[in-house]
Amino acid sequence: MNTPYSFEHDAYAASLHERFAHLGDGDESGATVKVAGRVMLLRTQGKLAFATMRDSSGEIQLFALSAVTSEFDDFVKLHLGDWVGVEGEVVRTRRGELSVKVGFWQLLAEAKLNFGDKWAGISDHELRYRHREADLWANPESRLALTRRSELVRSMRQRLWERSFLEVETPILNAIPSGAAARPFVTHHNALDAEFFLRIAPELWLKRLVVGGFERVFEIGRLFRNEGISPRHNPEFTTLELYTAYWDFNDMMALTEELVADIARDVLGTTEVSYQGRPFSFAAPWPRRSMSDITSEKIGEEVSVHTPETRLHALLAERGISIHESWGPGRCLSELFEATCEADLWNPIFITEHPVEISPLARRHRRDPLLTERFEAFAVGRELANGFSELNDPDEQRARFEEQARLAAAGDDEAMTIDHDFIKALEWGLPPTAGLGIGIDRLAMLMADVPNIREVIAFPTLKPLRDA
Fold first, then answer.
1. 99/68 Cα distance (integer angstroms)
2. pLDDT for residue 137 is more than 90
3. What percent of the chain has pLDDT over 90?
């Protein structure tokens, strides 16, 4: 198949519909354009042929006539999915369809595989995710979801730049897994003959940059966690992490709700939307409830980190939750909250005052030393963001890491490793600092109105196919 090396086109479907909206039925514009895209539908009526061509912006009809169109007999033999370049006049047919009347055309690439039954779209999820390139052409809603994600990230960057944040990059290959409680992916560095880990979080690196004098930093990047796959989880995912010197968790909650609301207005034009058929609002301010208060309200009795462990164990057992011997009252309270409250949190809300036991990097709460100045933002029953006043005491951080090591020895495969370099950085002095992490994939799910995280990841993780 001999096809051209390039095709210079000067118009897109969407812009043509906007530019020539004034044409009446049967009108000719006198304007000649060059368009390119895929043939998504083709029908022939004797010496006439009509094709629907889809480009990256939308669809436009191609109107071919045997007396006008070059190589008309070959045009009507095009396959669905073939790429074509077309030059012709913009007209509106007598039936009211804006069209490009095909004069000259070229076959740019031949589609040898079908995309779906009569271009109604691909419904086979295995095919859709494994061959996303086909899904994106056959299902316009898939392209819309990824477009929304791109617009979200662009808005996020712009809004942070406007707030004087500096974008940075931190290592993906780490000598130790640190910055979060999660199982890492392990790899081997041949030249150094050493074991490395794909990063599970950039947190400790970013705080070291604050120690180095950068007051406001952020990173948008990939994280890797060796965990399960679900409608809300993918082993590699994207987050925003940012840190601000001289702030506490109250300042960071204010930034979080303002930032997300701004992004919603940029991407969707409003903060009031519908998610999966139910009204949803990104508008600030978001409610703030402590973990103990909202859990107590849900179960009908007061519970907190000060509740006797025997009572917490009984409440967990009533709900069928198995208790690990390493759990203290803080972990028990967290598990109780997760089991009773999370699923009902629809519009964005901050859950605050997490126990120290489950927050090894967060600073103790100024009013209760068993709690931390930490928040998680929840929406539609899932965690959307996490942030806190940062622990900046190197001695206490070392003790927290040592406690994590004890948990690891007791069988917790998500416990953190002691990061001696980070402790040394804290010994040089970290000013009062607050941090934030936002799951970009989950935020994109809300803005694209899709229920599965795979819809907003171009190529989600799938089980490899094995040769027969």
1. 14
2. no
3. 85
Q: What tens digit of pLDDT does each residue of 170-179 get?
A: 999 999 988 8
Residues 439 and 167: their CA atoms lie apart, in Å, by: 17
> pLDDT tens-digit profile of 151-176?
999 999 999 999 999 999 999 999 99
Burial status of residue 227 (CB atoms within 10 A of its CB: 0-12, 13-18, 19 or more): middle
* Contact of 424 with 418, CB cutoff 8 Å: no
pLDDT tens by residue, 79-131: 999 999 999 999 999 999 999 999 999 999 999 987 654 445 556 777 888 88
